[in-house]
């Protein structure tokens, strides 16, 4: 017998992205993703080490031609060697989310956890 996994909110509208988050969870349209985790150290290879204080979030959307992530909130980092902070955005290159080179995690979806959009 074959096992099938699905998450369905509206069978006519729900689409799967054919990709997985860092935990191996399949990504669907409407999922809310976080690119970093609070306390994560980033940018050390660029010579400006920082720690994530607030994670940037985005929503998975279908544009009609390709999958993308629309930013919904800006994150914040604190630089380790300086007394300053900076905004942190979802990774997008030329306006498109980089599915292959970005580590992210599904933290909810717009149907069951809309409060994460605030």
Summarize the structure.
This protein is an all-beta fold and 118 residues long. The chain has one domain (16-109).
Question: What is the topological layout?
Answer:
Layout: E1 16-20, E2 26-28, E3 31-34, E4 41-42, E5 50-54, E6 57-62, E7 67-73, E8 75-79, E9 85-88, E10 92-93, E11 96-97, E12 105-109
Antiparallel strand pairs: 1-2, 3-6, 3-12, 4-5, 5-8, 6-7, 8-9, 10-11
How many helical elements?
0
- Return Rg in Å: 16 Å
> Given the helix and strand composition, which structural class is it?
mainly beta
Strand content bin: 35-45%
Q: So what's the overall shape?
A: globular
User: What order do the helices and strands follow?
Assistant: EEEEEEEEEEEE
Distance between the terminal alpha carbons, to the nearest Å? 43 Å
**Biggest β-sheet: strands ordered side by side in the sheet:** 7-6-3-12
Integer average pLDDT: 82
Approximately how much helix is present in the residues?
under 10%
Number of strands: 12
Domain module tally: 1
**Biggest sheet statistics:** 4 strands, antiparallel
Low-pLDDT stretches: 2-9
Account of the protein in words:
The protein is an all-beta fold and 118 residues long. It has no helices and twelve strands. The protein has one domain. It starts with 15 loop residues before the first strand and ends in a 9-residue tail after the last strand. Mean pLDDT is 82; it is low at 2-9.
């Amino acid at each position: 017998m074959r096992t099938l996994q699905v998450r369905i909110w509206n069978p006519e509208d729900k689409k799967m992205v054919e990709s997985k988050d860092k935990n191996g969870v399949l990504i669907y349209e409407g999922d809310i993703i976080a690119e970093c985790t609070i306390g994560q150290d980033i940018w050390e290879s660029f010579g400006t080490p920082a720690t994530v204080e607030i994670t940037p979030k985005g929503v998975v959307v279908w544009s009609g031609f390709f999958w993308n992530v629309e930013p919904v909130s800006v994150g914040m980092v604190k630089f380790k060697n300086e007394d300053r902070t900076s905004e942190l955005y979802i990774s997008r290159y030329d306006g498109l989310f980089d599915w292959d080179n970005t580590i992210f995690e599904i933290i909810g979806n717009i149907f069951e956890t809309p409060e994460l959009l605030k």
